[in-house]
Amino acid sequence: MSSVPASSAGISLSRFLIEAQRDQGHIDAQLRLLIEVVARACKRISIAVGRGALGDVLGTAGTENVQGETQKKLDVISNEILLEANEWGGHLAGLASEEMDHPHPIPNRYPKGEYLLVFDPLDGSSNIDVNISVGTIFSVLRCPPGANPDEADFLQPGTRQVAAGYAVYGSSTVLVLTLGQGVYQFTLDREQGSFVLTGTRLTIPEDTGEFAINMSNLRHWEAPMRRYIEELLAGTTGPRGRDFNMRWVASMVADVHRILTRGGIFIYPRDMKDPTKPGKLRLMYEANPMAFIVEQAGGAATTGRQRILDVVPETLHQRVPVFLGSKNEVERATELHRMADAAG
Ligand code: P6P
């Protein structure tokens, strides 16, 4: 991550977006409003998450989402915050969320815009009750012209994203954003109540000594996946000739933010626990936005067999295997999978 040049130090998110629209022409007014609205919603989510046991926000909501996962109260709260914040502004034609079976149409009483917003309102929510970082992940697509969008209009490959970002609610609340021209980091100044630029053109080192994976699934992995991890675990005694460290937060946002900050490889591979699922993470609102950000930071992101951003979605809540982070490690792991496939 490059330090913020003096000329940029302390720039607010609003000023950054105005300059991206007015001076660089990277975005239009609707997209600027969209990002500002999402950022404001993330501030509200940060406040709700920060209440912890002092607010009536911990524990389960007693309901299940479309994934069949038990919803935490904060899953529902965060989803409602993002829906309510985005309905009335006239910048969206539709929204889709991990927490909702079908896309959410913009009510007829509000004007419709040109963009589609897809999000995971609170990623890693199983960590909430134990006070470990969680986050919000979002992806922005263009709505097909004139469409009153249904699910099919959302099913665009990740290369069609015009913006993506995440907020991580940790020791500080950080918003990471790409508009397709590099990756930028903003930290929430709670006294001002605004996001302030704290990192420009974040870059991921091509090599790393750190990997992130849930090792408890080892016996369920495909052979090339086991071979890759065995290479890392062999350290200086194995073919890689160096030792590796492991981290696993079980909050994708926290693991990806660490990788964006100091490098690493994050893997959630296909496993045979449930052969009907090609992985745990969802393409549209986890893999795609994170892959866009990682590639914009000079990293790589594949399914182990193809570039994530090239995957053509078939369903809104489709899952994919995820390998992302330091380019040379992602390429090594992907090459092992391709060699295994070629060997049949
Ligand atoms: P596991 C959180 O539930 C999540 O979707 C990601 O944020 C995280 O990387 C992964 O699942 C953790 O999965 O199997 O380790 O609990």
Q: Can you put this structure into words, describing what you see?
A:
With 344 residues, the chain is an alpha+beta fold. The chain is 31% helix and 22% strand. It is built from eight helices and 15 strands. Strands 4-3-5-6-7-8-9-10 form an eight-stranded mixed beta sheet, with helices on both faces. A five-stranded mixed beta sheet has the order 12-11-13-15-14, sandwiched between helices. Helix 1 runs antiparallel to helix 2 and helix 2 runs antiparallel to helix 3 (73-87). The longest helix is centred in the N-terminal third of the chain and has 23 residues, at 29-51. The structure holds 6-O-phosphono-alpha-D-fructofuranose. 6-O-phosphono-alpha-D-fructofuranose binds at residues 123-124, 126, 214, 250-252, 280-281. Pathway: Carbohydrate biosynthesis.
Keywords summarizing the entry:
five-stranded mixed β-sheet, magnesium, 344 residues, binds 6-O-phosphono-alpha-D-fructofuranose, alpha+beta, eight-stranded mixed β-sheet, 8 helices, FBPase_C_dom, single chain, hydrolase
Write the layout of secondary structure elements.
Blueprint: H1 13-22, H2 29-51, E1 60-64, E2 70-72, H3 73-87, E3 92-97, E4 104-105, E5 115-123, E6 134-142, H4 151-154, E7 163-169, E8 173-178, E9 183-189, E10 194-199, E11 210-212, H5 223-234, E12 245-246, H6 252-262, E13 265-268, H7 283-296, E14 300-302, E15 322-325, H8 327-343
Parallel strand pairs: 3-5, 11-12, 11-13
Antiparallel strand pairs: 1-2, 3-4, 5-6, 6-7, 7-8, 8-9, 9-10, 13-15, 14-15
Helix pairs in contact: 1-2, 2-3, 5-8
Residues 123-124, 126, 214, 250-252, 280-281 line the site of 6-O-phosphono-alpha-D-fructofuranose.
